[in-house]
Write a structure and sequence with these properties.
Layout: E1 2-6, H1 8-18, E2 22-29, E3 32-41, E4 44-53, E5 60-68
Antiparallel strand pairs: 1-5, 2-3, 3-4, 4-5
Length: 70
């Protein structure tokens, strides 16, 4: 899912308030930040991958994807 005009710090704050997500990896590549989290939702483990601009002073595009275990 791609979201635009997202305040990354505010999104991450709400994400952690609403889930039991635990960061298991992060990679910074110039202008991008790519973070991977593991969480349990609906009794299923999920990996969540979030990508955004590395600068937090502007609202920008945010890409989120999730992979759930069977």
């Amino acid at each position: 899912m791609t979201l635009s005009d997202i305040d990354r710090p505010a999104f991450e704050k709400r994400f952690f308030e609403r889930t039991d997500a635990e960061k298991i990896g992060e990679e910074r590549n110039g202008a991008q930040v790519s973070s991977v989290y593991i969480l349990i939702a609906g009794n299923r483990k999920q990996l969540v991958h979030l990508m955004s601009a590395s600068s937090t002073d502007t609202q920008s595009m945010f890409i989120a994807s999730s992979i759930a275990a069977d």
